[in-house]
Amino acid sequence: xxxxxxxxxxxxxxxDGVQGEMSDPATLVTAARVVADAATRQVTFYGDASAPARLxxxxxxxxxxxxxxxxxxxxxxxxxxxxxxxxxHADTLRPKDKAPGESGEQRDEYVELVVRWAQxxxxxxxxxxxxxxGDVQTTSQRGQDNTLMRADELxxxxxxxxxxxxxxxxxxxxxxASTHWTVRKASAIGNVTxxxxxWEDRDAGDLRARLQVKGPRIDIDAPAERGKVIGQGxxxxxxxxxxxxxxxxxxxxxxxxxxxxxxxxxxxxxDAFHNDILIEGKSQMLHRLxxxxxxxxxxxxxxxxxxxxxxxxxxxxxxxxLTGNANATR
Length: 330
What we know:
mainly beta, 1 helix, 22 strands, elongated
């Protein structure tokens, strides 16, 4: 009862298989229990032993056993393990004569980026910021291209991309007023392993090429198509293609196939638009034409030791696989 002796609702609790829809912005809800606090304008969604709570707010979906949404701050957080599925829209395909960030022909494609964590998640809808922690794992797939990443923490900075408003029909489940997002910057922190795979035939287990990067931290600037590994790390390119093939892995194309391993003490920078690699600090490159687990098992291999290594490769463009964008290989 309020000070004017009128009835006032402080909290509302719904339980036993809650399903509903919230507006502004439109959000579909499935939960075992929902508690809404009128004073703080905060809603908490709970899962149960059979299923987590689930929120769908296009272009993203969130699942966790406890999710807290604050209407005032437009934030969502969870201190339990969960999954975040994000549609990364790449509406602009840049021709090769355009610089990073410049527009090209329009298209409507996206890649679904799946992020899983063991500890916590925080999403600021207004700022387009996502932070997850605790054994973070990400996967994305488009056609025969696959990307995977593991880290202790992951930070994503999203940016809206323009799109045409379409009518909401039975064939189109997206809210026409929803915002399309793409990854602008990403930082993977702590025990980072990133791998991009290209399959000739996934079902038959025919892997064409893979790129694996390991380091303490990887920072990615998607519009500039630049990535940097900060600290001691390794990069392995396992290229099973024949010499006359010209396909690329994560936008970086190596000729002649085989296995190439880079090691460094300080940092590695990939400028994927120009296909340049800069390795700083005590560096080593090992290359052999045959693939396998042991770099020095083959009869012939090349070893290069130096303090600084610059690799100028054939320009194919595209760091998209690192950030899960649609145009992963060109």
